[in-house]
Amino acid sequence: MATTQAPVVPQLPVTYIKALFNRFSEAQLTDLTVEKQKPLFVYGSLMFPSQIAHILSDSESADQIASQTTPAILYDHERLAVRDAPFPALVKSAAVYMRDIRTEVDGLLVFDLTDSQRKDLDDYEAGLYNLMPVEVWVEVVGEGGSREEGKVERKKRTMVNAETYVWAGRRDELVEVAEKEWDVDEILDRWA
C-alpha cells in the first residue's frame, strides 16, 4: 500500500498570527487615530510584522508592531502580482465602474508608526508605489462583560481613514494573482 505524504504547511511567524487575531475597541481605535498620523494599510510582505521591524531604522520589535496591528479590508481595489517579481501590487479596481461588482483586498492596518518609521517605509517602497489615502474597514469589539452577567462580546465593523501603497507603474506590468502562486515560505525566507 502506497502512503501519501502530507503537504508541508509553512510555519507562520507568531507575530503575524498575533496581528491576525488582534482587535481593538472603538475607544482604542479613537485613541490610535485622533491627532495622529493615519494608520498604514499593508497587503503584501509588509503584512509580516518581522518585515516591518527589519525595515525600520529604530529598535521597534516585531512583537510591538503586531500589538498595534489589526486585520482590515479595503474595498474597490485589487491585489495583483507584479510580473516576474515576488511581490504584489495594489490598484483601484476596474470593476468599480461596473457598480454591480465589488472587489476587496484583505490586509492589516498598522497604527502608531512614528514619522521616522513612516519615512523608512516610504523609502523602502519608493519608486514602485505611491502613498495614497484610503478608507478601510476593521472589526471592533465592544465592552461586553461576561456571559454570566448576560453580556457577550459584541463585534461590529467600522471605517478607518488610512493610507496605503498603490502601484505607480503601468497596469500591463501586472498579472492576475491566479496566474501566479504565492509562496509564503519564499516570502518568509526573503523578507521575514
What's the helix and strand layout?
Elements: H1 14-21, E1 24-25, H2 26-33, E2 40-42, H3 49-55, H4 62-67, E3 69-75, E4 77-82, E5 88-92, E6 104-110, H5 115-125, E7 129-141, E8 155-167, E9 174-175, H6 184-190
Q: In percent, how much strand structure appears in the residues?
A: 25-35%
> What structural class do helix, strand and pairing data support?
alpha+beta
Share in helix? 10-25%
Radius of gyration: 18 Å
- Alpha plus pi helix count: 6
- Counting copies of identical and different chains, the oligomeric state is single chain
Overall average residue pLDDT = 82
Task: Give an overview of the whole structure.
- The protein has 192 residues and is α+β, with helices and mostly antiparallel strands.
- It has helices at residues 14-21, 26-33, 49-55, 62-67, 115-125, 184-190, and strands at residues 24-25, 40-42, 69-75, 77-82, 88-92, 104-110, 129-141, 155-167, 174-175.
- A hairpin with a 5-residue loop joins β4 and β5 (88-92).
- The strands form two sheets. It has a five-stranded mixed beta barrel with strand order 2-6-3-7-8. A three-stranded antiparallel β-sheet has the order 5-4-9, with no helix packed on it.
- The radius of gyration is 18 Å and the shape is globular.
